[in-house]
Amino acid sequence: MDNRPINADRLWADLMDLADITEPGRPWTRRAFSALYLTGRDLIANRMRAAGLTVRLDTAGNLIGRKEGRRTGLGTLVIGSHSDTVPEGGRFDGILGVAAGLEVARVLQERAIELDHALEIYDCLAEEVSPYGLSCVGSRAVAGTLTDAMLARTNDTGETLQAGIDRMGGDSTRLTDAKRTNIAAFLELHIEQGPVLEDETLEIGVVTAISGVTRVLIEVTGRPDHAGTTPMASRADALVAGAELVLAVRRRAESQSARGLGHFVATVGEARVIPNAANVVPQFMSLLLDIRSEVRADLTAFLAALEGDVAAIATHHVGVTAVLKPVSDNPPAPSDPQLMADFRHAADELGLKQRDLASGAGHDMAWFAHIAPSAMIFVPCLGGRSHCPEEWADRDAVAKGTDVLFETLLRADRRLAQTTPSE
Ligand SMILES: [Zn+2]
Asked: How close is the Cα of 314 to the center of ligand 1, in Å?
């Protein structure tokens, strides 16, 4: 790989220099909306300028470096990800995608390569769940889906997200200016954050879709009684019925993931019991389900089967009723098939071992996919670990991913320029 244009040492230096900008004693923490985050962005902005990019902040607080293209009117190719971390998070999640964009821009400059399209590198504001409880703040704004209700959310000091965006250098009075309509393609490189590529000793994962995330609440209602005096046969125990539903979710999810059309997982990650007291037969239980589906039909089939289980509770447990309530629903964001093909060809040309896989985690790409052809690739990370200080990706692995990103950018630039007539 020595003759590759991507400079692995230079890329690695960006990653490690950004890692150094962390809360001391709490590595690796650089949360969006913090002073450290702005320090990190200063470093990125300076390196963008050194790579010949024109740097700006959009009104939503996205940091953008731009290089003009040879032709006008073709739209913009965007490489993007995020430089914020979760608390005690990693050095690669998101940061890799921004650093890879930087390195790509440096190679273009170094080799005097002119693209037909303009190129922009996006460091999207606050991809991780922010102190205001919202994730993907910047990329939602790009897609035009930041609502007033979202902007009114507050952090624990009472500051609104709207004020936070302004504090990060945005202009919340003109947020719609951040919405884009002229992006020709969006590309993202990210660590996998799961074990598939490492387990199969593969170098590149071409993402088929960002799974949809659907949350539903199951509420189980029984009757509170004395735990010492109520005979077993006379109880309407909401927790016992709820426990059956937890197992039903598990069973249904296993079968749906085995025979479904794509990536499918469902988790009961949150449960509440009322009154939650040792000497009272539980009166009420709620279960919050997180369901991730690559293909909408899998979600529909799963929910239909689960509805049946929920309805059947009343017949198995006298005096207990259960209902299923929708909470939130974000549909899957499929990758653009042509950009996926560009990624596959680039990886093949570079002799890298690859496979397709769905993303179970959310990414900025999901929001860009609302407004532009979008796709992303994964590189393996150690043990599939992420959102923890141990998160690690090898120098060689991230360089190979950046090689593929670079080659794909050139391919997409040529392909999209051919299909778009000159002005
Ligand atoms: Zn990320």
From this structure: 43
